[in-house]
Amino acid sequence: MTQYILDACAMLALLRREPGCEIVVGAFDEVDNGAAIILMHKANLLEVYYDLYRTYGRARARETLDIILGRPIRIISGISDAVFEEAARLKSLYKVSFADTFALATTSVSNGVLLTADHHEMDKIEQSEPEIKFRWIR
Fold first, then answer.
1. The whole model's pTM is what?
2. Cα(131)–Cα(57) distance, rounded to whole angstroms?
3. What CATH number is attached to the domain comprising 109?
4. CA separation for the pair 31, 110 (Å, rounded)
5. pLDDT of 67-99, one tens digit each?
6. How many domains are contained in the chain?
7. Do 39 and 3 form a contact (C-beta atoms < 8 A)?
8. I want to staple 103 with a disulfide (CB 3.0 to 4.6 A). Which of 7, 50, 65, 132 is the partner?
């Protein structure tokens, strides 16, 4: 069973119907068919929420958050020891946002596939860390 990990840009692409959203929709279709699960670390969900809050205000951000939380996404609130160690390792080696270290570490530890469009931070990691699997949405 495939484990997809969403970062903030993948979720925002879906919400805004940006290019690449069809790949995220496809992951949800796989969930509906019992072939996949979707994970998202709460740190990445925070990035989505504050972007929506800044853009649309509190009421719409909260409404959208409720919609997200109603979707079949396993929100990871805690930090396992393995994710803690991997996030620290990745943050020490690469110029990557704090929240994205959790998406990357979750992907690495779970042997999942990270759905992202964040080439700016992730291209170097993809080249240097072959065990972390990426699925570029654009």
1. 0.95
2. 39
3. 3.40.50.1010
4. 17
5. 999 999 999 999 999 999 999 999 999 999 999
6. 1
7. yes
8. 7
Domain that holds residue 20: 2-136
Radius of gyration of the chain (CA): 14
Cβ atoms < 10 Å from Cβ of 100 = 26
**Which residues in the chain land under pLDDT 70?**
none
Question: Hey, what amino acid is at 84?
Answer: F
Of the candidates 41, 55, 47, 23, the residue with the CA atom closest to the CA atom of residue 87:
41
- Of 23, 4, 3, 1, which is closest to residue 117 (Cα–Cα)? 23
Q: Which helix (H) or strand (E) segment is 19 a member of? A: none
Nearest alpha carbon to residue 11 among 46, 36, 37, 35:
46
Q: Helix/strand/coil (H, E, C) string of 53-115? A: HHHHCHHHHHHHHHHHHCCCCEEECCCCHHHHHHHHHHHHHCCCCHHHHHHHHHHHHHCCEEE
